[in-house]
UniProtKB/TrEMBL annotation:
Protein name in UniProt: SDR family oxidoreductase
Span of domain NAD-dependent epimerase/dehydratase: 6-209
Coiled-coil boundaries: none
Matching Pfam families: Epimerase
Length: 308
């Protein structure tokens, strides 16, 4: 039986964290990306093609799907990418672990649990719902074994393409205003990248995880103001914080396509956005998650070297 763990999208924030988690645990890893191979475990493949996906997944026991299209192209490209990757996973006889998020639920009141309906009506939410159904449908039909691990907004080492990235950590290190996207005083679940990776690897190695979605464990929700205070406490200097309002998002979005895309899911920013991860903790606990103060300090340390 194969013991190979394959990580698709291995140079991205989540993918690289999964590679680090697997490697630290002594697992045999193939790190797949479109870019040139940088080490003995790296593998170059275009998993948007059937040929590339089959080659990338060949010989795998578990495939971690951390690759994704550009944010603005999810609706057009994510379902097709998923179908191609399913072909590669099926050809390998492997198990698929999908690095998922919370878009499928749409606006909710109260903590999110995995049994909520997939009620999103925006294009990105519908695309993610289609992707999830493709994966779980393939599991139900016996084509593959599969599970999904859902996480909220993340931060951590290598987390540069995230709303809790450079505009928070790099800004604080430079003594500039650290900006939180949304209401500064609403509680929000945020996930630390190494914790996300640990949760995904747990799902990959536990058979009882198969056939459903799980909310990955994270530290307790914090408000934007509380989180930025933790960042500044670790960074030192005079704290400078600000929230990006819906009005500001609309104005900046006229010139910045990435910021413009945030409007589609602004309901994640203007109210409490809280993840209930109790099902994961009950099934796979005890679970250790990183306190936000510790995670913020480690992320700042990474940014110091990244920016150097």
């Amino acid at each position: 039986m194969s013991d190979l763990h394959v990580v698709l999208g291995a140079t991205g924030a989540i993918g690289s964290a999964v590679v680090a988690e697997l490697t630290a645990g002594g697992r045999r890893v193939r790190a797949v990306s479109r870019g040139a191979a940088a080490g003995p475990g790296d593998f170059r493949a275009d998993v948007t093609t059937t040929e590339g996906a089959v080659a990338a997944c060949a010989g795998a026991a578990v495939v971690y799907q951390c690759a994704q299209p550009q944010y603005g192209r999810w609706a057009e490209e994510f379902p097709g990418l998923t179908r191609t990757i399913l072909t590669g996973v099926e050809a390998a006889g492997a198990k698929l672990v999908m690095a998922d998020n919370l878009y499928v639920y749409g606006p909710v009141e109260g903590p999110m649990t995995e049994d909520l309906p997939h009620a999103a009506t925006n294009p990105k939410g519908r695309a993610r719902a289609e992707v999830d159904e493709l994966i779980l449908g393939a599991h139900r039909s016996g084509r593959i074994r599969a599970t999904l691990g859902r996480a909220s907004d993340y931060y951590g080492p290598r987390g540069v393409n995230t709303i809790i990235g450079p505009t928070v950590f790099a800004a604080a290190l430079a003594g500039k205003t650290a900006r939180w996207v949304g209401d500064l005083d609403q509680p929000h679940t945020v996930a630390y990248l190494p914790d996300v990776a640990a949760g995904l690897v747990t799902l990959g190695e536990r058979a009882e995880a198969d056939g459903r979605a799980w909310h990955l464990p994270a530290a307790a929700p914090v408000t934007g103001r509380e989180f930025l205070d933790l960042v500044w406490a670790a960074a030192g200097g005079r704290p400078r914080v600000a929230g990006l309002s819906r009005t500001a998002q609309r104005l900046i979005g006229l010139f910045n396509p990435t910021v413009r895309e945030l409007g589609e899911t602004w309901y994640q920013r203007d109210r409490a956005f809280i993840v209930d991860d109790s099902a994961f903790r009950k099934a796979f606990g005890p679970v250790k998650v990183t306190p936000h103060a510790e995670g913020a300090a480690a992320t700042l340390d990474w940014y110091r070297h990244y920016a150097a």
